[in-house]
Design a protein that fits this description.
Layout lengths: L1 E4 L2 E7 L9 E5 L9 H10 L1 H8 L9 E5 L7 E5 L14 H22 L4 E4 L11 H18 L5 E6 L2 H16 L22
Parallel strand pairs: 2-7, 3-5, 3-6, 6-7
Antiparallel strand pairs: 1-2, 4-5
Helix pairs in contact: 3-4, 4-5
Bound molecules: ligand AR6.
Length: 206
């Protein structure tokens, strides 16, 4: 599944993010940047111990923040580590986690995309951040991630490829269905999206 946005491509594929040969792959990490389970564990296993050593020197990563390292034994030259929200337990101080969670998730994507641009990267692969151990409902997370990436690519044609890599068939189907809807709403080459909530691209502080 592919959507053209200005000069860039948004791809939706099913597979393993570890195998992607994009300039960077994004890791759904934890705040201490120590190897965990899920996509984080898979990336560390494939990258080798150099990645863990470099991560140790980064001083952790706040929710919504993103940090870049080399890719070591991965096909990707870089790993961008971001920490998404733990669904329902937002650390921004609100009673209800939900709006804050959406804001943090969007910021995770934006900070990762901005790091890619700052490092002159042309292609990046994302997993569905926060939708595993961190419990974010998949459809809502898919909507946030797709709209965020599409809006970003409209403003940054220098980023040529963003690929979402969905691990399981059901996850892939959710992304495919949603992106097909978005594609069919598009006119000419530009995808028309609902007006996004205004969310700062800077790093969120606790
Ligand atoms: N390639 C692509 N997607 C994958 C892969 C893979 N190899 N493996 C899992 N997924 P999760 P989170 C999908 O739990 O929710 C870790 O312990 C998975 O199906 O990896 O952000 C960290 O250290 C799901 O859709 O990340 C943190 O403590 C998505 O990746 C915590 O988990 C995200 O699931 C982060 O939790």
């Amino acid at each position: 599944m592919e959507i053209k946005i200005s000069k860039s491509k948004l791809e939706i594929v099913q597979g393993d993010i570890v195998a992607q040969a994009t300039d960077a792959i994004v890791n759904a990490a934890n705040t201490r940047l120590i190897p965990g389970g899920g996509v984080d564990g898979a990336i560390h296993r494939a990258a080798g111990p150099g990645l863990r050593e470099e991560c140790k020197k980064l001083g952790g990563c706040l929710q919504g923040e993103a940090k870049i390292t080399k890719g070591y034994n991965l096909k990707a030259r870089y790993v961008i580590h971001t920490v998404g929200p733990v669904y329902g337990t937002s650390r921004l101080g609100g009673d209800s986690g939900k709006p804050e969670d959406a804001e943090i998730l969007k910021t995770s994507y934006l900070n990762s995309l901005n790091l890619a641009i700052q490092n002159n990267l042309k292609s990046i692969s994302f997993p569905a951040i926060s939708t595993g151990a961190f419990g974010y409902p998949l459809e809502e997370a898919a909507h946030i991630s797709l709209t965020t990436v599409i809006e970003f690519l409209k403003k940054h044609p220098e980023l040529l490829l963003v690929r979402f890599v969905l691990y399981s068939q059901p996850e892939y189907e959710v992304y495919k269905t949603l992106s097909s809807k978005m594609k069919s709403q598009s006119s000419n080459a530009n995808v028309q999206m609902p007006k996004p909530k205004s969310i700062a691209t800077k790093t969120l502080k606790h």
